[in-house]
Design a protein that fits this description.
This protein is α/β, with parallel strands linked by helices and 393 residues long. It folds into 2 domains: 44-148 and 271-294, Response regulator (Rossmann fold); 151-268 and 305-376, Rossmann fold (3-Layer(aba) Sandwich). The chain is 35% helix and 18% strand. It has helices at residues 3-19, 62-77, 92-101, 116-122, 150-163, 181-195, 209-221, 235-243, 272-283, 312-331, 358-362, and strands at 48-52, 80-84, 107-110, 130-134, 143-148, 169-174, 200-205, 226-230, 246-249, 263-269, 291-294, 301-303, 341-342, 348-350, 371-376. Helix 4 links the parallel strand 3 and strand 4.
Length: 393
């Protein structure tokens, strides 16, 4: 066995001793999603929920997967839903008006974090409509805020990426339109540093497919031999496949893993149970504005098994890393951002005894030590053609 594998075995042993091995039920949905539909036993009021998506719901990207989760919850609750996709920030209010006036919707769900601030300002013009604001933590009178902790999955991804890297150089391409991209980058670095304290995480931000390609090309030039993909577009993993480089995805590939032979693992959000619970409350007229954080603890954030792309020499160790850490994140015994945290200049941002709050994590605008940010690869985009606000089901 080479010194490289001996070092990784020592890392695994140290992690197991520090964190503690435990069983893990990674993909268990919230038990509320498995409960029987009780709405047939009571008199219900008709409701219709309209979703607004930033990207196309026909692609297997973020918007497409959120729409599929909408559809699954709709089928299980008999709630009527519809959506408008490819909506820009400037057209968000027009989409709301179309869903209410033309679609007859009584509730609206924003399907992208980029709409969060816009919805808070639009909701007070529709006080008779209930809203679910994805990516927000504020809750006006008729708005429930719903956000998630994708950085928990990124923390595990950083560990697995480092354990399968020969160069000790990891890359991450992050979409600034996604939820808390800086926190996801920093969490990836924190996970990476549990394996190799002196490893480097190269980060780049990009949104559109050509930008993503340019970002990944630059990450590879820097010597990254594993790429973490955190983009709304599915093109990031597809391009890594074309380049023949190993990578980690952040969308749900359950049942389709065989299509991605270079994928080491993936972390994702499964919102079916959340939407189902919200729909039932609406049908029973018990819905109230509230705040909800999707985490590993409530089954929203999930992590896959180590996939066949993992080197056979590290397959068992990689899975042990996942089995070790995930249950601790679920139980709250392990935190992503606690202890001393330094920025890229070596300045102490948080002391050893401190733990960052959810609000501090979600609004991070600085990078932790070990991250080398290559900058934004976003280009000036031509204006999208006018949206005809077609309401689809």
């Amino acid at each position: 066995m080479t010194s490289k594998w001996l070092k990784r075995a020592a890392v695994l042993l140290a992690l197991c001793m520090t964190i503690g091995l435990a069983g893990c039920n990674r993909e268990t949905e919230d038990s509320s999603s498995e409960s029987s539909d009780t709405t047939s036993e009571v008199e219900v009021t008709p409701h219709k929920v309209g979703y607004i998506f930033h990207d196309s719901a026909d692609k297997n990207g973020f918007s497409g997967q959120m729409s599929m989760q909408r559809f699954k919850a709709s089928n299980r609750s008999n709630m009527e839903t519809c959506y408008i996709d490819n909506v820009s920030i400037t057209d968000f209010e027009k989409a709301v008006k179309a869903l209410v006036s033309d679609g007859g919707c009584t509730e609206i769900v924003s399907g992208s974090a980029i709409f969060a601030n816009m919805l808070d300002s639009v909701s007070n013009k529709y006080m008779n409509i209930n809203f679910i604001n994805f990516g927000s933590t504020s809750s006006p009178a008729n708005v429930s805020s719903y956000t998630e902790a994708p950085y928990q999955g990124a923390f595990v991804a950083g560990m697995v990426a480092a354990f399968n890297s020969d160069a000790q150089k990891i890359g991450i391409v992050a979409d600034t339109d996604m939820l808390c991209p800086t926190a996801v980058i920093n969490a990836s670095a924190r996970g990476m540093q549990l394996v190799f304290s002196d490893a480097t995480l190269y980060s780049a931000t990009a949104t559109h497919d050509k930008e993503i390609e340019n970002a990944i090309d630059e990450l590879i030039k820097k010597g990254s031999d594993v790429i973490i993909c955190y983009t709304e577009s599915p093109h990031s993993v597809e391009y890594c496949e074309q380049k023949g480089i190993k990578y980690i995805g952040s969308l749900d590939y359950k049942g389709e893993e065989d299509k991605y032979p270079n994928m080491l693992m993936y972390f994702c959000s499964r919102r079916d149970s959340y939407f189902l619970a919200q729909f039932k409350q609406m049908q029973l007229d018990t819905w109230m504005p509230d705040g909800y954080m999707g985490t590993m603890s409530n089954g929203i954030i999930t992590v896959s098994e180590a996939l066949p792309a993992v080197d056979p020499k590290t397959q068992q160790e990689s899975q042990k890393l996942i089995d070790t850490l995930v249950p601790k994140l679920v139980s709250g015994d392990a935190l992503v951002f606690d202890g001393e945290i330094k920025d890229t200049a070596g300045n102490i941002k948080y002391m050893q005894a401190e733990t960052m709050s959810d609000a501090q994590i979600m609004t991070m605008d600085w990078y932790v030590l070990g991250v080398e940010h290559l900058g934004s690869f976003r280009e000036v985009q031509t204006e999208l053609p006018p949206n005809n606000f077609e309401i689809k089901s």
